[in-house]
Structures are given as structure tokens and as C-alpha cells.
Design goal:
163 residues; alpha/beta; 5-stranded mixed beta sheet; 4 helices; 12 strands; globular
Amino acid sequence: MIKILLLSDTHSHIDDSILKHVKQADEIWHAGDIGDLKVTDAIKALKPLRAVWGNIDESKIRGEFPENNRFMCEGVDVWITHIGGYPGAYNVRVRDEIRANPPKLFISGHSHILKVMPDKKLNLLHMNPGAVGKHGFHKVRTMLRFTIDGSKIDNLEVIEFPK
């Protein structure tokens, strides 16, 4: 079983309250809009990190992280991208690939809106952890924590911080 901490849209913000949760996870996944490599450097100093770049990220971040990160975590096919949309409204950039070869877990960021929902047509689970950074219209900063055990995604929790 692997404990995952999923975050997005840090917009250069990292603090001890976030890092406390990083320390409790086995892996950290970042769905883009990192803002500054100090964020990912702080995370990587503590735990393994999988990340993608987002639309605000400059060339240095884009050189270190891919636009799409698709991998297997235990028995779960995972695809992380920053601008991906959600079931029924996938972004045109990813729509055809999702339909042709759906992952079991599709993760995106960008909207600053926490959302977890199934795509029953494609038999996948979509997650957007919202935004944990301090820049944006969101009123509450959020992250997600969950486990992957074989092919099972379980123990989903929302972590909230005041803005």
C-alpha cells in the first residue's frame, strides 16, 4: 500500500503546514502550476515526487517536469496533467487520448476547484486537488490524501487550510 499526497497550484507557496503532510505520505504528486522550483526542491528533500508543469510555469520548471506524466502505481494506471478538464468536459488537448486509452486515475489541476468524480463511460476516476497556494480566487486551500493498494484507490481525505 502506498500513501499519496496530491497537490496542485502551489504558485510558489510552500510552508511547514504543507510539509507536515508531505512527511506523512510515501509519494507526493503535484498537478502543476508549481511557480518556483523551491516548492518541488523542498518536497523532493523529504519524499519521492511526481509532477507536471502548469500554464504559469516558466522554462526552468518545464525543463524539469513533463506536461503529462503517465505511470503505473502498483496496479493503477495514472495520468497527471495540469489542464485536463473533467468527465464530460475533457480538454481538447487530452480528450482523444483519454477516450482511446483511458487511465484508471486521471488527475488535473488548474481550476483551483477540488473535485473528485467518476467517469462511468470510461471507467476512470478523476481527481483535482484544488489549489494549495495562496494566489487565486479559491477561498480554502486544499490537497487530497489517499492510498493505492494493488488496483484499489481508497482512504480518500480532503486536507483544508485557511487562505
